[in-house]
Each structure stands twice: as C-alpha cells, then as structure tokens.
Amino acid sequence: MRLFISTLARFVVLVLVVLAVVPVVEAADRDKLLSEPGVYGTFAAFSLDADWGKQDLPIRIAQLTVLKGVVEQHREKLAIDVYLLRGLSDHADLLFRIHATELRETQQFLLDLQSSLFGKHLTTTAIMHGMTKKLNYVPGFPDQVKADLKIVSEPGLKPYAIVIPIRKSADWWGLDQDKRAAMMQEHTEASAPYIKTVKRKLYHSSGLDDLDFITYFETSKLEDFHSLILALEKVKEFPYNRRFGHPTLIGTVKSLDEIIEILAQ
C-alpha cells in the first residue's frame, strides 16, 4: 500500500508539473509547412529500451504525459507527425516527421524530447534531414504527364506510411540535364497509375545528410505500393541508385493520443 501511494503521488506531481510548465500555444501553419518549398523535413526514428515496459503503469502514463507536453510546446513553430513502427519494423518503435522553416527549431525539439523523462527511454536508430524544393524536371514534361500528376488521390484515411532514403551514384550526377530529365519522365510515367492510391512527398537531402533524397509515402493499399516499387525498379533511372532504403521504415499513421494509449498498455 505504501509503495502504491508513493507511486501515485509521483504520478500526480509529474502531471501537475507538465500542466504548469507547458504553455498553451498557437499551432504553426501546418498546411503551409507541408505544401511550400524551402521547408526542412526531418525523420527521427527511436526504439524504446527494455526498462520502459518494466515500469509501473502510473509511471509510464506520467512519462507519456511529458511526451505530449514536449510535442505541444513545439507546435507553435513545427508541424509534428508521429507514427507507430513497432510490430511492422525491426528498425524502431516510433517515428517523428518534423517540418520546420528553421532546422535549429527541429534540433531544439529533439533535444527537449531526448532529455525528457520519456526520452530517457529512447534510443536513436535513424535521423534523416531533407528540404522541400520546387519540381526540377516536371516543367519540361509533356502536357499529358503534367496532367497525370495533378490527379487527386483517393479520399479517406491512408493508414500506412513508408520512408525510403535514396542516394544517387556519381554517374547519375555526371549525366547532362536532358538525359536525367528523360529518365525522370519515364520514372514519372511508371508511377502515374498509382497516384490515386499512393501519396508521396520528396525531400532533397544533398548537403544536409549522407543522402540525396528522402521519399515519403502514404497509402491504404500496400499492394499498390508494392507494385509501384516494382514498376520503378524497371526504369532506366533505377540502376543509378547507389542506396535505396537501408533503412526502409514502415509504420502506421497515428495521432499523438493514440500513440500514448498504445505505449501505456
């Protein structure tokens, strides 16, 4: 009984501390951060240590409350998405996708996360940085290809998220612009049949990471995503990939509250 009262007291104190120190802030313009060029995108994957599951439930809940406080504290300047990788990936348990106009704001969020009571149980498995840019090759594509790219994806929830980092070979960058553009047109035409069911977003990483690109996908039809990758493996551009995946991260899109509920179990 004494142990239970002590544990409960610690839980109450921690929750009160979180409520006291986390201000109510106005959220950043999420639509703008997710749609405009010149925005930094960071993918940070973490594994939970073995001690996490050994803690009493009130302690885990208190630490998850701290997690929520850290995220909410930084929403004023960042768009933060969270994904559950546990059960689908052996690389990590959680993935954060963070969009910011300044990369140092992402750095501060990750520092606060890792130094928090919840963060003490996190082991970093991957951090990848990129930025959004205007389309390089599309302006020179035929009108029909441009029209295909404007097809709206199917409405409804797309519960699966996949992240694939890519590094091109030196031979790729040695090609002239016209040759690269022709191959990227073939790449685009091969992916067009899957635009409705597989959403994608590209991040440019050269100079920001040991990568050239980070590709992010959302879908409700993993079979279509599988077919998309098979189709892309057949185009002339694909052999110029020096790295494709390693790691490939796959998980489910979750709200922060859903993540907290799952990890509290």
Quick take:
The chain has 265 residues and is an alpha+beta fold. The protein contains 9 helices and 9 strands.
Give me the secondary-structure category: alpha+beta
Largest sheet: 9 strands, antiparallel
Shape: elongated
CATH class of the largest domain: Alpha Beta
CATH arch. level architecture of the largest domain: 2-Layer Sandwich
Q: Average pLDDT across residues?
A: 91
Which segments are poorly predicted (pLDDT under 50) over 5 or more consecutive residues? 11-22
Order of helices and strands: HHEHEEHEHEHHEEHEEH
Oligomeric status of the shown chains?
single chain
Task: Provide the CATH topology of the largest domain.
Answer: Alpha-Beta Plaits
Model description:
39% of the residues lie in helices and 25% in strands. It is of the alpha+beta class and 265 residues long. It has 2 domains: 141 residues, Alpha-Beta Plaits (2-Layer Sandwich); 113 residues, Alpha-Beta Plaits. Helix 1 packs parallel to helix 3 and helix 3 packs antiparallel against helix 4. It is elongated. 25% of the residues are buried.
List the helices and strands and how they pair.
Layout (H helix, E strand, L loop, with lengths): L1 H20 L8 H6 L4 E9 L8 H18 L4 E6 L9 E7 L2 H13 L6 E10 L11 H7 L10 E9 L1 H5 L2 H15 L6 E7 L8 E7 L2 H11 L8 E4 L4 E6 L1 H9 L1
Antiparallel strand pairs: 1-3, 1-4, 2-3, 2-9, 5-7, 5-8, 5-9, 6-7
Descriptive labels:
9-stranded antiparallel β-sheet, 265 residues, Alpha-Beta Plaits, alpha+beta
